[in-house]
Automatic annotation (TrEMBL):
Pfam families: Cytochrom_B_N_2. It is a multi-pass membrane protein. The keyword Membrane applies. Residues 526-537 have a biased composition (Polar residues). Residues 1-23, 525-583 are annotated as: Disordered. GO terms for biological process: respiratory electron transport chain. SUPFAM superfamilies: Transmembrane di-heme cytochromes (SSF81342). One of its GO terms (molecular function) is oxidoreductase activity. It is found in: Cell membrane. It comes from Nocardioides gansuensis. This is Cytochrome bc1 complex cytochrome b subunit. Keywords: Cell membrane, Electron transport, Heme, Iron, Membrane, Metal-binding, Respiratory chain, Translocase, Transmembrane, Transmembrane helix, Transport. Residues 540-583 have a biased composition (Basic and acidic residues).
Amino acid sequence: MDTTKIASTNGTTAATTGRPSPLAGVGTWADERLGLATAMKKQIRKVFPDHWSFMLGEIALWSFVVLLLSGVFLTLWFTPSMAEIQYEGSYDQLRGIHMSEAYASTLNISFDVRGGLLMRQMHHWAAMLFIAAMLVHLMRVFLTGAFRKPRELNWVIGGVLILLGIVEGFAGYSLPDDLLSGTGLRIADGLVKATPVVGTYMSFFMFGGEFPGELIIPRLYIAHVLLIPGLILALIAAHMLLLVYHKHTQWPGPGRTEQNVVGYPLLPVYAAKAGGFFFIVFGVCATMGGLLAINPVWKYGPYDPSKVTAGSQPDWYMGIAEGLLRIMPGWETHIFGVTISWNVFLPGQIAPVALLMMVLAWPFLEAWVTGDKREHHLLQRPRNAPTRTAFLAAMITAYGLLWAAGGNDILALKFNLNLNYITYFMRVAIFVVPVLVFFLARRWCISLQRHDNEVLLHGYETGIIMRSPEGGYSERHLPISTERAYSLTARDRDVVVPDPQPTDGQGVRDKGYPVRKLRARLSQGMFANNVQKPTTSELEEAHHHAEHEHELEHASGMDRPADGHQFDGHADHTPDEAPLRGH
């Protein structure tokens, strides 16, 4: 077969043959054996919608890439060993001190390796950004209902990614073997030992003997650089594949339906934007790593089990466990010679997992309560799901309180308050404040729904005050644009499940009555107070009423152009040219 390249032209000269491109030949060879062109032809033209909130997931993705790049650099000089040596490095204050090789290599990276401190701090800031972006991305998905069918599995994957990210972060900042990270490991040892019956065995297995042992740093190193990153990479790949398979969600608007996606193709538009966004994230991490100090391990000194860092605080994403541990009463149970430390076991193991399970189970709970089996590709405005939005607001409030409770000693010191009073206040506030926030946020959303209906039915407020011949004043309303009206009405009406009958038609008690009653009560609690969008007849009646009012105003001479600036010195046009204020 002739593999020469035929050049065509519209000119008068004859076409000549050219030499085939080597790159094209390699591409043809690979495609004939792997079918890459056929597989990628459709995917590279796949359309993705464009909205700023969709970038939150990209921040998490690119910060993870920064973590991988900076982590590879750090592994070249870090020594994951707890063997004791005498430090002879360039940091004068610690020279001659006995410490582990892990701590000494961390000091070496910070002071003796060119660019080492920059990479250490970039790595730490990228870890902070990675977990923060995942959490904010999770909240965006939750608030907009992007977790609904068919994306429940992707929601669970996202929750597991956050859990793995937290464990990965804890393992990472424990590696330097300084006094602060050693304090965190001591707390982790206490959490493990609080496990009923098998806690001490688990601790001995983890640390290779009595705490701190000599194996925990090498084991954490393997988990930090190999095991957990591998799991995160696999879950990110699964997350992205499901995203492509299910297609991306989009905000409702003209031309956007449950069956299509309006946006830009992957190549070249979206790929170029994503590539530029990576460099922005990389630049932000580099700027923070170069200008903002984080985890200055040389100030803490090497770990000594007989000491503890005064005012020690974990990274912010450990705030739930830290706060719960500090405000939990000292409850213990002694049974059959075994002590169950509820004051550590409940806040350290049960409560954080229970909170995570509540969030991950929400899509399945909501689908069961609503009975909705349809696929959803259009997003919801947070105000149109008041109970869901209020639940997230309550969860954020609980996290904020626990974060503050985790720093009760710092609060007492800085504000000259009684430490015990702060603890007692937090014990009450954690049960009261989130409930108050839940009801406040829910009523707020319902009020916004009512406002949307008023805008749909009566138009937007122009700010123009009109005076009638009788002396009364009223504000001029004008209808909203078609695009905005579409976005306000592009939502389903909530279906409230009625109370079931305890018996069937023959008077026999229904065995499933308790479950169906629970579903009805949950449905009524979640949707009964919601303000539903106006019906077609209500919209037509409102428009007819507006036209009637306009006719009356015209007849009474009130209908004349005015923009509200005729008497304030800002009018530079005639009344006939005065435009109404935009909306």
